[in-house]
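seq as requested:
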Amino acid sequence: MKQLLLVLFALFCVQLSFSQGEASNWYFGSGAGLNFDPNTGTVTADPSAIGTISTNEGCSSISDPNGNLLFYTDGRTVWDRNFQIMPNADYLGGSGLLGDPSSTSSAVIVPKPGNADQYYIFTVDEPHHNNAWAYPDQGPADQNGNPIGFYEETFGNQPTSINIDDGFNNGFNYTLVDLSLNGGFGDVVPTEKNIHLITYDPNDQSHVPYKCAEKITAVEHADGDSYWVITHFIDTFYAFRVDSNGVNPNAVTSQQTPFITTEGYRRNGIGYLKSSPDGSKLAICHAQNLDTPSSNTASGNTGSLWLYDFDNLTGMVNNPLNLQNNTQTYGVDFSADSKKLYAPNGNVVSQFDLEAANIPASQVVVFQQTGGFIAAVQLAPDGKIYLCNTISSTFLDVINDPEELGLACNYTPSGIALSPGANANLGLPPFIQSFLIAKIEAQFFCFGDETEFSIDSSESFISILWDFGDTNTSTLDSPTHIYSAPGTY
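struct tokens:
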């Protein structure tokens, strides 16, 4: 695994530290939590969120570089590091955000570059057909636009209370959290809350009632100082850049096959979008693609899984590659080295070798069970991959060695138990994927100092070669080096 560290050495002292603790705390499902200790590499079940978060799907959390929790959310309500609701982010109290716990991703959290106290929460609503049929009025409504007193499910024919939704498809939005507010526990900045981003054609009346699919991912920009936040709708990827100036509302757009019609929403919009940790690939799940209105119908054999090249310098998406068709695809994620891809299809989990000459043909089934549904797939700071499995909601499945080929990946069903009283559902928290690979740490940058280097990685390595940028090298695990002149190395 190769990392490049660019440090400016000047005649004054500067210390930089790059760590991977931002993804250390996960809160999801019904009060479920996991803590990944960045110092010991251990993972433990955490009961702290029991009685707070309760989400069927979407959620997100963020910690500081040392692994200390900052806050977490279901896309509507935000809880601080003491597991208390932030005053200006209380959905049931009327001050919530515009995500949805029944949206696949619902939210992802991105630091504001240059300000250690500020973070953006990007949210995506569940684009419900009963709201679209009411547009521009408040839903729910039937297909003829007549108001109804419940939400029709797209499977099971079970009506749902109108209390689950505000009656509008709110699309893609962002909100700023400032940790210096609320006595240092953080709160939403009122003037930068639920800011709408355009992820559709405003002139197309088949787009506007839905606005966006249920997909968000984030990855570091090629400059190492900013981020891309990416979403998708119909046949277009939207990449928004976040830098020290804030969120650029003008997305980089890439129109790519396939075309996912809005006619079968809301299930046509379901499924994860993930970036590879190295920022070179995107993988996207489309749970289904029905081309007729389907208020009470779900078709698990019309979905697809796709792989694309992503340019993390320009934000462009290219080279679509169809990996699966006629599937019930929902969750997907990459190994830490970005060389393997894992995707469930109902009760089967497959691995794809991204270094193979024929990637679709490299598919290997690494796990299969009778019944149940395997949903979210999420890479963790320990280098393992965790999966939600409806057969065992008090556990998560674990892929212990995801960089290994085929069955050597060591898939373990019910590999880690959750805290008593907590349950996983369908979703796990997404993160900026770049947080989940090795980071270089360096300190002591005054000219003449002995600069110390180390690598912070969830992976073991056989050997390492350091290039200090001045013709000197080292093969030590944690070398030191004295530069002969100030400069950029």
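Residues 131 and 139 are 4 Å apart (CA to CA).
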